[in-house]
Write a structure and sequence with these properties.
mainly alpha, Serine Threonine Protein Phosphatase 5, Tetratricopeptide repeat, 0% strand
């Protein structure tokens, strides 16, 4: 039994083209159907209407544009792909010679290769040249700039009034159209919340793919037209998804990429004017800066995030992150003052977290930060109490975040070592060392390596410490970041 043809696949496109050709449809009709059915850009639709690959199209455009020095067009498969996607991000605007050569290759008019989005993005001078060309086959031959045409006379009197009304009516038709509905936006946010929650308990690499796919859907919608309030909602969804990708990239050891995602999340927050997203985007950037060793940046991002009035637990986490960075710098008083601000923010919480999951700071997560800070400022006994309390809180949470739980156990172990209890450290780390490789995130392995370095000091030497260091070394070698680096690249053989 033959497998069903996947909609939009090459086999599906080939079958459509063959069926329409057999029915006597012209290539232009096939291109229109391709655009409508598969939501293609005009130039891509014409290519598929002919059944050409990107390289075949590049060869034909180069041949059609070969008219001599200064006018020739040199195309390759990559350029054709970028010309097709323009004006989307990471694309390239086709020049006038390219458009005329493509029209000649496809056997159509230049205007057939443009839609409204293209016209809005083309320079006015290019539009005037295109509009001045004659229709039909003559246009595809006109690669050279045409002779200037005398301007059409401006309308006057009643004709001017009627024309102005027609222009307003045309604009109104466009303005009331939208490529997304309120239910669709609600579904996108629901998907975003699900991903943010799943990240606490799922493998990061698998979830990264799902998050990127949803982000691309939102980006694609933003390239179209919708009501301003819907545009703002889409920017909010895009910002949270980029923030989630930033968090994942950082946890997988790719801090530079995480910083790029964080900047895009912040841009979306600014474009949407959404204060909750602003706070969480800056929290994400603080996190990335901390693990990248840019501790002053981490503090500044956290403080800046705290200036935005937001609902939920963003201010709790921002204060925790500031405390974390201060303690790493050795500024004990500033660190403990930030811990106190986190506790105050907990008592004055207003409302629920809009997204939740990784974009929330429940009490157990707050306790994890407190324990780490107390350890760094030399308060081992208080750190042990904070870690014990955080684990008790984590057990009763609806979702137990394995990354947070692992770091709490590491703080427990460090506190035991600080008080000379190597056996207690071994017991505390047993759940951590049993984590599967895909859950061994960069913050966990980094904190374990820091703990291993402490165990190398003379005052912590001993049989238990030596065995524990060996177990940590073996654990960190087989990590999530290493599995990602060794995974086959997309499109490889």
């Amino acid at each position: 039994m033959n497998a069903p043809i996947k909609p939009g696949s090459k086999a599906d496109r080939d079958a459509l083209r063959q069926e329409m050709t057999a029915a006597g449809c012209a290539t232009a009709d096939i291109a229109i159907e391709m655009r409508t059915r598969y939501r293609m850009r005009p130039r891509e639709a014409w290519r598929h209407a002919h059944g050409w690959t990107l390289q075949e199209t590049a060869d034909r455009i180069s041949q059609a544009g070969d008219r001599g020095p200064g006018e020739s067009v040199a195309a390759d498969a990559s350029l054709v792909g970028k010309w097709e996607k323009w004006p989307a991000p990471s694309s390239r605007r086709p020049s006038l010679p390219v458009l005329f050569a493509a029209a000649k290759a496809f056997g159509c008019r230049v205007v057939d290769l443009l839609d409204l989005a293209d016209r809005r993005s083309l320079p006015e001078t290019d539009l005037r040249v295109i509009s001045s060309q004659p229709g039909g086959a003559e246009e595809s031959q006109a690669l050279a700039a045409p002779k200037p045409q005398p301007p059409a006379p401006e309308p006057a009197g009643s004709a001017l009034v009627h024309l102005s009304a027609d222009e307003s009516a045309t604009w109104a038709q466009w303005a009331e159209g939208s490529n997304v509905g309120d239910i669709a936006i609600e579904q996108l946010m629901a998907g975003t919340r699900a991903l943010a929650a799943d990240y606490l308990v799922s493998d990061p690499v698998t979830l990264f793919v799902r998050t990127r796919t949803l982000r691309d859907r939102v980006f694609s919608l933003l390239e179209g037209h919708q009501y301003p309030r819907q545009t703002a909602d889409l920017y909010v969804a895009a910002g949270y998804l980029c923030g989630l990708l930033a968090w994942m990239s950082s946890d997988l050891g790719h801090l530079r990429d995480a910083d790029t995602q964080g900047r895009t999340a912040w841009l979306c927050a600014e474009l949407s004017g959404h204060n909750d997203l602003r706070a969480w985007a800056l929290s994400t950037r603080s996190k990335v800066a901390f693990w990248d060793g840019r501790l002053r940046d981490a503090i500044n991002y956290a403080r800046r995030g705290s200036t935005y009035r937001s609902t939920g637990s963003a201010h709790v986490l921002l204060a925790c992150q500031e405390a974390d960075a201060w303690s790493k710098l050795g500024a004990a008083s500033e660190a403990m003052a930030a811990v106190t601000r986190a506790a105050d923010a907990r008592h004055t919480l207003a409302g629920e977290d809009d997204v939740g999951g990784i974009f929330s700071c429940p009490p157990a997560r707050q306790g994890n930060y407190a324990a780490a800070v107390q350890l760094r400022v030399g308060q081992a006994a208080e750190a042990l109490r904070s870690a014990d309390n955080a684990l008790a809180l984590l057990i009763v949470q609806p979702v137990r975040a394995y990354g947070t739980e692992a770091q709490i156990h590491i703080s427990q172990a460090a506190a035991h070592l600080a008080t000379g209890e190597a056996e207690g450290a071994l017991e505390a780390l047993t759940p951590v060392l049993s984590l599967p490789p895909d859950h061994r995130l960069a913050p966990v392995t980094q904190r374990l390596n820091e703990l291993s370095a402490v165990m190398g000091r003379p005052n912590t030497a001993g049989t238990a410490a030596i065995g524990l260091r060996a177990a940590i070394d073996e654990f960190c070698v087989d990590s999530a970041a290493r599995h990602l680096a060794l995974s086959p690249r997309e499109g490889s053989a």
